[in-house]
């Protein structure tokens, strides 16, 4: 698929280039500011075993290169990128290869969460892998009605969770309809995670929620080392810096690669103001 140069310029704000080198350069820049990273090679819903193998190999290269460069970064991966649409078995083998390599380097693999059609399989596979590899973590989304139960299940298994609000279009049966419900659920679940004794990621740019959670941590005496905040590359850099400056852990999710269009579409959908940014770039030609 070809994209206009204007779309590409917009993508550059949210995506750290198309190559492993450009992504590592972004990690290095953030590390210099005291921020840690998680690298995501963009891609999802592969339809052949060969594509899944390529995706797995890029992730292995990322782990090797992060290690060689002594960078502070782990990786994030989507199961449909590792072949989940083809078979759970194939996906399991590819994920196990990543976890083995990451374990060798004392690194960590975060399994991103996709649309609700994949939630059960994703939670199940992360849970199964966690029996062998304690360096795997899941993502849960506060917009899903089922998430409170999933949180309890993964907490009981001491699995590290990244909590986000959720980025996919979901029907009312499975997801809360109103933003206020999603936000309320987020706040409650984040507090639960912070108090759990396992190290979780609080992934949001919602300043109101973040301020409430900072206060919660202070009131309950929850140490900064007990959890981390996480944000997306290029979004609320000011807040990323402020939180780090106040002594909280801050990890930036850095996507890169040529398959940036679905990712960019999700970022634009959740913040229509970004369309002005597109328009401005269109007028620049
Ligand atoms: P909300 O959307 O309510 O935004 C709060 C404020 O943040 C806005 O008012 C604005 O200031 C700022 N903001 C938010 N989005 C912005 C944007 N695109 N551009 C500019 N400003 C913006 N989702 C998922 O379904 N599966 C996953 O695995 C992940 N993984 C993930 C990792 C990390 C580290 C983060 C931060 C997020 C995800 N997400 C995700 C995405 C997440 O579900 C959600 O769509 C976005 O984070 C936006 O939600 P907020 O929590 O930021 O709140």
CATH architectural type: Alpha-Beta Barrel
Strand order of the largest sheet: 1-2-3-4-5-6-7-8
CATH topology: TIM Barrel
Low-confidence stretches: none
Structural class: alpha/beta
The total count of helices amounts to: 11
Provide mean pLDDT, rounded.
Answer: 94
Write the layout of secondary structure elements.
Elements: H1 5-14, H2 20-32, E1 36-41, H3 49-68, E2 73-77, H4 88-104, E3 109-111, H5 119-130, E4 136-141, H6 147-156, E5 160-164, H7 179-194, E6 200-203, H8 207-220, E7 227-232, H9 237-245, E8 250-256, H10 261-270, H11 274-283
Helix pairs in contact: 1-11, 3-4, 7-8
The chain binds dihydroflavine-adenine dinucleotide.
What does this structure look like?
With 285 residues, the chain is of the alpha/beta class. It has a single domain (36-282), classed as Alpha-Beta Barrel (TIM Barrel), CATH 3.20.20.220. Helix content is 49%, strand content 15%. The protein is built from 11 helices and 8 strands. Strands 1-2-3-4-5-6-7-8 form an 8-stranded parallel beta barrel, surrounded by 7 helices. Helix 8 (207-220) links the parallel strand 6 and strand 7. The mean pLDDT is 94. The chain binds dihydroflavine-adenine dinucleotide. Dihydroflavine-adenine dinucleotide (FDA) is lined by residues 112-113, 139, 141, 162, 164-168, 203-206, 230-232, 235-236, 253, 267, 270-271, 274. The site of dihydroflavine-adenine dinucleotide has 24 residues, from strand 4, strand 5, strand 7 and helix 10.
């Amino acid at each position: 698929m070809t994209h206009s140069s204007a779309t590409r310029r917009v993508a550059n704000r949210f995506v750290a280039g198309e190559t492993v080198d450009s992504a590592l350069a972004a990690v290095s820049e953030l590390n210099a500011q005291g921020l840690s990273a998680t690298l995501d090679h963009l891609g999802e819903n592969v339809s052949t075993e060969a594509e899944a193998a390529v995706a797995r190999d890029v992730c292995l290269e990322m782990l090797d290169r992060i290690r060689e460069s002594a960078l502070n970064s782990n990786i994030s991966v989507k199961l449909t990128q590792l072949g989940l649409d083809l078979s759970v078995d194939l996906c399991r083998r590819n994920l196990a290869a990543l976890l083995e390599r990451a374990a060798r380097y004392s690194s960590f693999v975060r399994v991103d969460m996709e649309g609700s059609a994949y939630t059960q399989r994703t939670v199940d596979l992360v849970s199964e892998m966690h029996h062998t590899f304690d360096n795997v973590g899941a993502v849960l989304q506060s917009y899903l009605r089922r998430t409170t139960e999933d949180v309890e299940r993964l907490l009981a298994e001491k699995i590290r969770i990244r909590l986000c609000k959720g980025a996919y279009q979901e029907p009312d049966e499975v997801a809360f309809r109103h933003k206020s419900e999603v936000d309320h659920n987020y706040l409650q679940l984040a507090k639960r995670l912070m108090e759990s004794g396992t190290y979780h990621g609080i992934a949001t740019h919602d300043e109101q929620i973040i301020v409430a959670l900072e206060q919660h941590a202070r009131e309950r005496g929850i140490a900064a080392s007990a959890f981390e905040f996480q944000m997306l590359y290029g979004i609320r850099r000011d807040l990323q810096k402020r939180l780090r400056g106040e002594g909280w852990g801050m990890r930036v999710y850095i996507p890169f690669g040529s398959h940036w269009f679905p990712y960019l579409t999700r970022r634009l959908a959740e913040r229509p103001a970004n369309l002005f940014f597109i328009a401005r770039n269109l007028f620049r030609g």
